[in-house]
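To whoever is on call:

I kicked off a structure prediction for a single chain this morning and the downstream step that reads the tokens threw a length-mismatch warning. I double-checked the sequence; it's 442 residues and nothing unusual in it as far as I can see. Pasting both halves so you can look.
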Amino acid sequence: MPEVGPDIRIPSPAENGSIGHVELRSDGVQEVLGRIPPWTIRYGITVIFGLILLLLLLAWLIRYPDVIVAKGVLTSLDPPREVPARAEGRLMALKVTDGAEVAQGEVLAVIESAAQPAAIDSLRRMLPILHDLLSSERDSLPTLNDLELGTGQRSWADARALASELLRWRTDPYREQRYASLRQKIALFKRLILTAEQQLVWARRKQTNAIAEARVDTTLLNKGVMAASEYRTRQNAFIDQQLNVGSLEASLHQQRITLVELESQLADQLFTDESKQRELEQRLRGELNGLQAFLDSWHLSNEVTAPRAGRLHYAQRLNTDQPVKNAELLFRVLPTNPTYLVEATAPVLGAAKVREGQAAYVRLYGYPADEFGRLIGTVEHVALIPGEEGYRLRIALPKGLKTSFHRTLAFKPEMNGQVDVVTRDRSVLGRIVDRLRGAMDR
């Protein structure tokens, strides 16, 4: 049995009242029991250091990206064109139904004006005919009825009168008869002049012969061969021949003067008639240009037209006879095969992390992401200078409106949503170090 030190007392069962209960009161025993073995300390330090290293390793390995949240609007590369009213009045007609395909320049609606739409249509049909009257020798015109054109009423009345007068002038048979009569007289006088010239040629030949005979007669008279009475008779015949030549020359000159007067009369008549026709045409052209300007002005203000080809959508509920105000939005025209994109605005805080080519996820408010999924896009452009609300971003949608749930969304113009731009990955350790560094800088 081992020895027990003097400070240790083992009570008897009677003293303790319980077998196996030992009360230790020695300080040495307490010291021995309270001493931690060195190997335990070394093991614990190793475990703690290993855990710290493991945590640091995990913090370095675990990476996740920053997300910049921006506000976005779904649109297209060729955005919808808004079509406002350009005049105030009632809607006289709605030409195209909601959702229909329209061509560029197609009339969508007509707004009330002083000019009646039927009168405008008639004027449009008549203007090419009246312009054709100016450019060609038309000999007839359709009936030019009175049209209710409002401010264009006076111009139309003047154009009708001028067109009728010009047509009467062109088709006047007496004018052509006057021309024909003058031309016939000119032709006759030319023939008379030709005949007179031939007669004058023969008369001058006869005159030459008469002069020669007169010389012979004078010689015979001087020699006493011819009697004086016979000489005088032959001299009178010679003088008559001279007078005949002079008469023919005077007649020829008079005929030539008459011919010149007739030609001048014809030229003056042609000039006068052409001047009058030119004047009528210029006045009619001026009235037609004024009517065309009136039509253009009416078209711009009272006819609502499609600015491009595409699909038409009503911007509000529209009915015939509904009053509209100037500049009030009536329609939108969407492109037929659009390229969709998202115009977003990123806050200034953290916007420097956004780079072109980064992934972006778009949650449209009209299509809950839990049900329809998110649109997958790429940052295509980042503005260099911020605006009032932040930096402007353009998000391209390579897959169009196909979401992460493989559902294709119906395009609705100007639909708002949230854009999550995924920036570069950062480790947890790097984030902790950056926060500590920021805290120390403060």
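Update from on-call: the warning came from a stale cache, not from the record. Cleared it. Sanity check on the structure: DSSP finds nine helices and 14 strands in the chain.
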